[in-house]
């Protein structure tokens, strides 16, 4: 595994590989890797000649009162996990991506201010900007994103479409732990009691899917049932919403494209999850 920290050095390496006709896949991460990340990386490796993984805790996507300084950074562990899986590990410094005079950002006029965007102002501006930067440096043919962060995947895919970027954005299934909790680097924050309470999130989503399978199509009734289950475990709800997965427009009735998305706090720890209500996923 080759490790690059300098943008120009990686850029030159990728250019040389492209001249040889080799395809490149990218898995952008913020580190603290778990099995969800490894699933993306294994798929990337299988579908491309070169598998590139980036680890960069992006300051631009964190708000002033969020966990940027506390975000887990077990770099040595991550590097060990990547050996034998990734061909290239990109470890840029914040100063190389955001120069003092940096003043150009990527914004979406649609769907960036709903769901997580309504509660994390500027978050998706930071996400889209760093992803575009990573695409420019690594020149991937394909980039892999987990569907746990569904809104993020949706906006990145829209950015590639709207800006005519020659990158195929590949959505990969949400991965859960054996107890049903969606895998997240932030799960490390949970103590045993908090983790037990956090399971109410995946349980509530699974209950919503069960209601749909039993014939319920009224979105309002499904959301009320989900919110009651979350509040019973003293979880603070940022949002629970049912949207069309193809447009992110709000749904009042359930159809084949309906997806339930939720963000909650277990004490001070924010978790997100989602489920396709007419899909086959089980929590």
SSE layout:
Blueprint: E1 2-4, H1 7-19, E2 24-29, H2 35-47, E3 50-55, H3 75-82, E4 88-90, H4 94-97, H5 116-119, H6 123-138, E5 142-146, H7 150-162, E6 168-172, H8 192-213, H9 219-232, E7 236-244, E8 258-266, E9 269-276
Parallel strand pairs: 1-4, 2-3, 2-5, 3-4, 5-6
Antiparallel strand pairs: 7-8, 8-9
Helix pairs in contact: 6-7, 8-9
Tell me about this structure.
- It is a single chain.
- This protein is of the alpha/beta class.
- It folds into two domains: 2-172, HUPs (Rossmann fold, 3-Layer(aba) Sandwich), CATH 3.40.50.620; 190-275, Pantoate-beta-alanine ligase, C-terminal domain (Pantoate--beta-alanine Ligase, Chain: A,domain 2).
- It contains nine helices and nine strands.
- A six-stranded parallel beta sheet has the order 1-4-3-2-5-6, sandwiched between helices.
- A hairpin with a 2-residue loop joins strand 8 and strand 9.
- The longest helix has 22 residues, at 192-213.
- The radius of gyration is 19 Å and the shape is globular.
- The protein starts with a strand and ends in a 7-residue tail after the last strand.
- The mean pLDDT is 96.
């Amino acid at each position: 595994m080759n490790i690059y920290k300098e943008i120009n050095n990686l850029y030159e390496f990728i250019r040389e590989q492209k001249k040889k006709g080799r395809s490149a896949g990218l898995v952008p991460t913020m580190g603290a890797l778990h099995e969800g990340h490894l699933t993306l990386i294994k798929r990337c490796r299988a579908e491309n000649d070169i598998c590139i993984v980036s680890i960069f805790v992006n300051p631009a996507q964190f708000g002033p009162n969020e966990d940027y300084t506390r975000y887990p950074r077990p770099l040595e562990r991550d590097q060990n996990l990547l050996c034998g899986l990734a061909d290239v590990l990109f470890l840029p410094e914040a100063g190389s991506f955001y120069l003092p005079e940096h003043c150009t950002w990527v914004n979406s006029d649609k769907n960036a201010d709903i769901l997580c965007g309504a509660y994390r102002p500027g978050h998706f501006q930071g996400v889209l900007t760093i992803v575009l930067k990573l695409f420019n440096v690594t020149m991937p043919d394909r980039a892999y994103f987990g569907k746990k962060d569904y809104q993020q995947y949706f906006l990145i895919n829209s950015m590639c479409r709207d800006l005519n970027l020659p990158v195929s954005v590949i959505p990969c299934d949400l991965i859960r732990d054996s107890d049903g909790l969606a895998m997240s680097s932030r799960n490390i924050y949970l103590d045993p009691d908090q983790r037990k309470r956090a399971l109410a999130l995946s349980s509530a989503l699974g209950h919503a899917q069960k209601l749909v399978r039993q014939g319920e199509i009224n979105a309002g009734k499904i959301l009320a049932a989900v919110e009651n289950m979350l509040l019973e475990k003293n979880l603070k709800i940022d949002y629970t919403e049912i949207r069309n997965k193809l447009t992110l427009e709000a749904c009042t009735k359930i159809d084949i494209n309906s997806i339930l998305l939720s963000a909650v706090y277990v004490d001070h720890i924010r978790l997100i999850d989602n489920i396709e209500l007419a899909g086959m996923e089980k929590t």
